[in-house]
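Slide 14.
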Amino acid sequence: MKTTLSALAVTAGLASAALGLGTAVAIADPPPPVPAQGEVPPPNAPRKTAEFWNGEPVVWTSMWGGRWGIWKNGQFITLSSNINTGGG
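Slide 15: predicted structure.
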């Protein structure tokens, strides 16, 4: 009796797995929007050394104290140091 119930449970589990029952669909969050223009740099911002770097426009961001950088694949790559501390 136990063997029959175990075999039936395994068969039912395999059949539902084959039909895709009980599986969750993985949906990734969309990447954040990439600001094409960046922000307006403050008066004490260092001089922008280039208009483009690695094929991407160099923009200003106030993140991390304010820096020049580029947006690449939804990530910001910094190209200058923090204007307040001079650090990385």
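Speaker note: The chain has one helix and five strands.
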